[in-house]
Write a structure and sequence with these properties.
Layout: H1 32-36, H2 42-50, E1 73-75, E2 100-106, E3 116-122, H3 123-131, H4 144-161, H5 166-172
Parallel strand pairs: 1-3
Antiparallel strand pairs: 2-3
Length: about 170
């Protein structure tokens, strides 16, 4: 299993198996990195420019995979736990700790050429991944503590969105 720089587990054998797309890939299949950051890697940018900035991974004839691209990066944008499916519920006005945390499946290392790949995990699954043999692809459900915290936040959301006419508020006063 892949490890963090500190040696703890990240919960997967192959981080690339948990990638849906590169952060630099546009909807029309072009490489945003080669266009916006051409000065960082002129040779790469020139090759992409010659191919109208098309991402080589999107071309089935290229033979490229995500791991072949020197500038690949993947950050999951789905706001639910990749392991148990718990959805994020933010309490921005209270400053409570988020339910979900960004979890790195691999770590950027310029010398070794690895890519940064991240997903979201609820803080309970995140702890299990790093402190035990738990895996991201385990068949898991949110634990009782996670569900209780999510429901508490859901109740706060409903209270915030509730409508009470002014006449009712005056009656209480």
């Amino acid at each position: 299993m892949e490890k963090t720089p500190q040696g703890t587990s990240v919960g997967v054998d192959d981080p690339y198996a948990h990638v849906s797309r590169c952060d630099h890939l546009t909807d029309d299949g072009r490489c945003r990195y080669a266009f916006h950051y051409a000065g960082n890697d002129p040779a790469f940018a020139a090759a992409r420019r010659a191919d109208e900035f098309q991402c080589p991974v999107g071309d089935p004839d290229s033979g490229w995979e995500w791991r072949d691209c020197p500038h690949f990066r993947s950050t999951e944008h789905n706001r639910e736990c990749a392991r148990c499916g718990l959805a994020e519920r933010l309490n921005t006005h209270t400053g409570d700790r988020p339910l979900l945390e960004e979890h790195h499946l691999s770590y950027a290392d310029r010398d070794a050429g690895t890519h940064e790949i991240t997903v979201f995990l609820c803080r309970w699954c995140h702890a299990k991944i790093h402190t035990s043999f738990a895996r991201i692809d385990d068949d898991a459900s949110p634990g009782p503590e996670a569900l209780a915290e999510a429901e508490t936040r859901r109740g706060h959301e409903l209270d915030e969105f509730g409508f009470e006419p002014a006449s009712k508020r005056r009656e209480r006063e």
